[in-house]
Amino acid sequence: MGAGHAGCEAAAASANLGSSVLLITMQMDAIAQMSCNPAMGGIAKGQIVREIDALGGYSGIITDQTMIQFRMLNRSKGPAMWSPRAQSDRMRFSEMWRHTLEGIPNIDFWQDMVVGLIVKDGFVAGVHTAMGYDIYSKSVVLTNGTFLNGLIHIGMKSFGGGRIGERAATGLTENLRQLGFESDRMKTGTPVRIDGRTIDFSRMEEQKGDENPGKFSFTETPQLKKQKSCFITYTSPEVHKVLETGFHESPMFSGRIEGIGPRYCPSIEDKINRFSDKSRHQLFVEPEGWDTAEYYLNGFSSSLPAEIQVKALKLISGLENAKIFRPGYAIEYDYFPPVQLNNTLETKLVQNLYFAGQINGTTGYEEAACQGLMAGINAHLKINEKNPFILTRSEAYIGVLIDDLITKGVDEPYRMFTSRAEYRILLRQDNADLRLTPLGFNLNLASSSRLDKVNNKLEWIDRIKSFMHTTSISPDQVNGFLESIDTAPIRQKVRLDALLLRPQVSFIGLIDHLDFLKAWTHQIGEGVEEIIQEAEILIKYEGYICKEQELAEKLSKFDDMPLKQEFDYQSLPSLSTEARQKLSRIRPATIGQASRISGISPSDISVLLVFLRK
């Protein structure tokens, strides 16, 4: 229920697997709306989009079809940190998602608001709608975004809404509470939208896309031929002073906002308050599309009075004459702590009912989309009496996200970072297809042509590694190149893979210098660049990759030790009081999950292991 990023992926996945799907949304014209910034990907988020694509989802494909700029972030760091990010045409993104969903035969649409669930004998049986209809189904996926009792704040003004200009969803939270679910409040925000015709870009730093732009999808999506630039500007002490004049009217500082906001994407007033020692903050001026004058001011999220926002805006370099299309605002909404879910995203209280997206306390299009994909897959599998589809922490960032949610819960809007993944060397954006396409194929979501492409890629990677390992090069062939890149010359023959271990030496550099290597790699044909890149990463980081793989395999044994959901933890006095309380509340599925619960000590795990052995 809901047609945001989670709802779209859930509907598409279930329908493509063979289920009949009804997508209920309050506004058909706002399908897959980019409510906040017009971008997909970013640090760790780009990895998630590539994982969605590898499994057979659509977020990567639609991003590629509608992007206006592409950048690979963190290139100066190791490949585990590389993260793709794209600016999107906001209107075309939404339009393309609707066109895609309408092209899937098993999906029907209904514009209405879900106000309650039909539950029989512990199973969800359908929904009640605001227009008075009872719609019956075998499963329900709730993807309500920020709409559940949404409350918008602009200065001293507050009014109901799920997004500005759209009404809030009412009734459903109350119904879920009556069924026994716990709920709480969260807060997020968005900045002003600016009329680009009134921006002086000459006073800002231009931020262009990559010279050779990449893409998200592993399918044959179009290559980006032209790009639109973003721009960078900064706040100043004068800007901060103006903003501070409105702090007494700030709903956040006055206590009118009860929900917890995102720590890693704070409002501008929160940044000024928390980082009072900083004289300026960076702002990104981002275009909303090819054919619109609307710009998004990334870093200037605010719930201050509109007149204060505008007054401060006009003191920013390049925005002296700026006019706005709409002010920034904060929004509070209901969410349901995700410890109430199983690792399939099915609720523990009501069977065949799934939660995905911001209803689980997450923030971000990418985090929502991957939850929708997993919920949609598992909803289909459950009603067809098939085994659930679960990704582990060593298989995907998606696995990390879901395990974090159901095991640790959230005390602020959850955002994915590379630091959350202990196996991030394994979970790189470049190998998402190698990791997950076989799983997507087994589900019947990824096509056979996708799997053939992955198998061809794997075959060539192995051939390259073998060739580099068995081929040596003499000093006279390579020393000129080595000296040109400021690395020591060799004195005797050296294997190519050993030479590639040097930080200064790249595979492309060797190909450009060595004609025989250029001729050999020319055989690869389609996808040569990504195949070469993958082979280079595996050669350069082989030791680190092997160590991380060994660690993942060692710890995975705990995730293979199941715990019965009905087990009475209060009957084990050897467990700490905190452990008994948290284990009884969260009901972990395995020893591995139990070990990751905050407050569960190694001694508590030892007690559980002793009990299991008995």
Give an account of the 3D structure.
This protein is of the alpha+beta class and 614 residues long. The protein is 37% helix and 17% strand. It contains 21 helices and 21 strands. The strands form six sheets. Strands 10, 11, 12, 13, 14, 15, 16, 17 and 18 form a nine-stranded antiparallel sheet that branches. Strands 2-4-3 form a three-stranded antiparallel sheet. It has a three-stranded antiparallel sheet with strand order 6-7-8. Helix 2 (45-55) packs parallel to helix 9, helix 2 (45-55) packs parallel to helix 11 and helix 12 (448-470) crosses helix 17. The protein starts with a helix and ends with a helix.
Short synopsis of the structure:
With 614 residues, this protein is of the alpha+beta class.
